[in-house]
# Entry
Amino acid sequence: MEKLWEDFGFGLFFWQLIIFVGLILLLKKFAWKPILNSVNEREEGIKNALLSAENAKKEMQNLKSDNEKLLADARAERDLLMKEAREIKEKMINDAKSEAQAAGEKMISQAKAAIESEKNAAMTELKNQVSSLSLEIAEKVLRDELSNKESQTKLVEKMLGDAKLN
# Structure
């Protein structure tokens, strides 16, 4: 450190000081303003970029909330449509069941009527067959009994006796 003070000279110091002050003045006049302007422009650019990023973030949040709202609305509408579809399906099933039941009851009543008609026809036919069979049997029995003169008289007397009793 002593060597530093030994080599110290006012002339050299003076010229260095003048060069330094001149350099400062030159820098102030020609370089300082452009440097400060570029720094200020950069600072403004950064501020604008941060502001734009903040606005974009807010817009994204708004879009996200809008999307969530739209999604919730779509889900609600889907649920409503599904509910309506289920109700329509149930109504269609119930209508089909009631129509099928009505058709079944109609078929059953038609079948019962047909059965009753067939039964009546069968009973009529059976009565006709029984009466014709009874007439044939009675005719055969009467022929057998009327073939003989003596049995013919007994039969006539018996019928007369029955007729008087009644």
Residues 31-165 form one domain. Residues 10-146 form the longest helix (137 residues).
